[in-house]
């Protein structure tokens, strides 16, 4: 068919299936698919919730005419077999970050409001995952109607470990060959051809720092390193909370006799996009120091002072690691999780997104110096080097040209601080579905935050773009 005919068919298809798309998104949002290794077992390596969501995704794929495959629970995929076993692929994920607080709508359901879908995962990434399946359904219906297979096999991956370690794709690539080309609908349009390096690590007190006589008994905030916490709490002796009643940004809650919980309220968000956020841990540490809560407890005071440094900066300047380059932009950092352990020691987890202008060794050295200065240790965690794909690659141009046809003829590819599955594959990129040119109402939350939402028109346009993009990829020499 001609491109005009293809676009007309895609338009009619999206309008025809849209209510089914929304209901399939809903069926996935209802599953609390947060990694929980305490429920892991054979066939469910990331826990029961992620397994249920992956299974539901494969069930939807089978209903839409694709061939589903469960890879021992590590990851799933669904195929539309083509004339060649060479694969053009999409990859999206059905796991989510923890729900968190601050929601005004049920997080484990889809709320439709003024042309938006709200709920955990509607944007990141259950909604886009369903779009990938319906893009494949468009071609499954065409194959059923005409009997003519696509030149390449179309594979739709069902990721289920993206939000924590992406070990699902690492497992897959240890057991299977990579697709010839892949895009992930887990970011923004126009097209993302590069991603900053990502590094996680943990500061840990060398010894227990919470003493029986301490006025600070507990610090707690966050659930994952890659989310900026919007809420943080400290349990203190009640006298340490004197004068704080009604203080803007804080609330007080009685705990046991003689103890009060101070709750700090910030503005949460994704660790890769700190602009406009307020880390509740940093706000809380500053208050505790102003109140003199840790005075007289040397180890505890040193830890909170260190926290005050790392939780109140997003550019790394106080640590001497601020860096920026022309391609990747500036380094960002986030103190995402703080915990008080049963033995009285404390930890705080860091997330860093960095450009090629600074070496990972320099970042680690700066963290270790800071830890040593405050009587702590720093433990290295997950690490991914910066990723970049040449925008002149024909497959990249095919996707970008499709977006230009539908939205913006002047659109150019860009790089991000977030991390997607694309960085794990030899030829891949992130491609929508969110369009940053759309200004959302204030009540629409961002990914990883409360009231996560996305415009239905945005998703509809993305589905059309994906359908046409797949046709163009199928025309390329990908051998």
Set out the fold topology.
Elements: H1 3-29, H2 48-63, E1 67-70, E2 76-80, E3 84-93, E4 111-113, E5 116-118, H3 126-146, E6 152-159, H4 167-175, E7 181-184, E8 187-188, E9 192-195, E10 197-205, E11 216-221, E12 227-228, E13 231-237, E14 250-254, E15 259-265, E16 269-270, H5 280-290, H6 298-310, E17 324-325, E18 329-330, E19 332-340, E20 346-354, H7 360-373, E21 376-384, E22 387-388, H8 394-406, E23 414-416, E24 428-430, E25 433-434, E26 453-455, H9 456-474
Parallel strand pairs: 3-6, 3-7, 7-24, 8-25, 9-23
Antiparallel strand pairs: 1-2, 2-6, 4-5, 5-26, 9-22, 10-20, 10-21, 11-13, 12-16, 13-15, 14-15, 17-18, 19-20
Helix pairs in contact: 1-3, 1-9, 3-9, 5-6, 8-9
Tell me about this structure:
- The chain has nine helices and 26 strands.
- Helices cover 30% and strands 26% of the residues.
- With 479 residues, it is α+β, with helices and mostly antiparallel strands.
- The protein folds into two domains: 3-195 and 387-474, Zn peptidases (Aminopeptidase, 3-Layer(aba) Sandwich); 197-384, Alpha-Beta Plaits (2-Layer Sandwich), CATH 3.30.70.
- The protein has helices at residues 3-29, 48-63, 126-146, 167-175, 280-290, 298-310, 360-373, 394-406, 456-474; strands spanning 67-70, 76-80, 84-93, 111-113, 116-118, 152-159, 181-184, 187-188, 192-195, 197-205, 216-221, 227-228, 231-237, 250-254, 259-265, 269-270, 324-325, 329-330, 332-340, 346-354, 376-384, 387-388, 414-416, 428-430, 433-434, 453-455.
User: How would you classify the quaternary structure?
Assistant: single chain
CATH architecture of the largest domain: 3-Layer(aba) Sandwich
The structure class reads alpha+beta
Radius of gyration from the CA trace?
24 Å
> What is the CA–CA distance across the termini?
24 Å
Mean pLDDT: 95
């Amino acid at each position: 068919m001609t491109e005009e005919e293809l676009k007309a068919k895609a338009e009619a298809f999206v309008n025809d299936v849209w209510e089914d798309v929304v209901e399939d998104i809903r069926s996935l949002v209802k599953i609390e698919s947060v990694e929980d290794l305490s429920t892991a077992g054979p066939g469910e390596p990331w826990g029961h919730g992620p397994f249920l969501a992956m299974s539901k995704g494969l069930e939807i794929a089978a209903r839409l005419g694709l061939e589903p495959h469960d890879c021992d629970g590590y990851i799933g995929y669904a195929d539309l077999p083509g004339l060649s076993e060479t694969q053009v692929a999409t990859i999206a994920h059905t796991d989510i970050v923890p729900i968190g607080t601050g929601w005004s709508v049920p997080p484990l359901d889809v709320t439709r409001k003024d042309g938006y879908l709200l709920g955990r995962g509607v944007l990141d990434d259950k909604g886009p995952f369903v779009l990938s399946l319906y893009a494949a359904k468009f071609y499954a219906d065409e194959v059923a109607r005409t009997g003519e297979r696509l030149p390449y096999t179309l594979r739709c991956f069902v990721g289920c470990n993206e939000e924590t370690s992406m070990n699902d794709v690492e497992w897959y690539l240890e057991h299977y060959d990579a697709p010839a080309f892949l895009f992930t609908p887990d970011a923004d349009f126009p097209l993302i051809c590069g991603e900053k390096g990502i590094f996680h690590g943990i500061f840990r007190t060398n010894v227990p720092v919470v003493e029986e006589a301490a006025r600070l008994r507990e610090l707690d905030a966050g659930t994952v390193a890659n989310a900026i916490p919007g809420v943080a709490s400290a349990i203190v002796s009640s006298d340490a909370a004197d004068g704080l009643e009604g203080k803007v940004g804080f609330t007080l809650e009685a705990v046991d006799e003689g103890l009060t919980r101070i709750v700090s309220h910030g503005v949460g968000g994704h660790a890769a996009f700190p602009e406009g956020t307020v880390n509740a841990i940093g706000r809380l540490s500053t208050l505790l120091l102003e109140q003199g809560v840790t005075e007289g407890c040397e180890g505890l005071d040193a830890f909170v002072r260190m926290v005050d440094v790392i939780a109140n900066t997003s550019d790394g300047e106080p640590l001497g690691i601020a860096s920026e380059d022309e391609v990747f932009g500036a380094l960002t950092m986030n103190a995402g999780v703080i915990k008080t352990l049963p033995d009285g020691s404390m930890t705080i987890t860091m997330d860093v997104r960095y450009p090629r202008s600074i070496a990972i060794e320099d970042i680690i050295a700066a963290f270790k110096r800071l830890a040593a200065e405050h009587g702590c240790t720093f433990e290295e965690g997950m690490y991914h080097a910066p990723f970049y794909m040449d925008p002149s690659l024909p497959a990249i141009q095919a996707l970008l040209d499709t977006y230009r046809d539908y939205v913006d003829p002047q659109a150019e590819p860009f790089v991000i601080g977030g991390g997607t599955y694309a960085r794990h594959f030899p030829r891949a990129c992130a491609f929508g579905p969110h369009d940053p040119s759309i200004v959302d109402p204030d009540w629409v939350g961002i990914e990883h935050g409360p009231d996560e939402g996305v415009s239905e028109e945005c998703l509809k346009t993305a589905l059309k773009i994906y359908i046409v993009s797949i046709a163009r990829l199928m025309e390329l020499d990908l051998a």
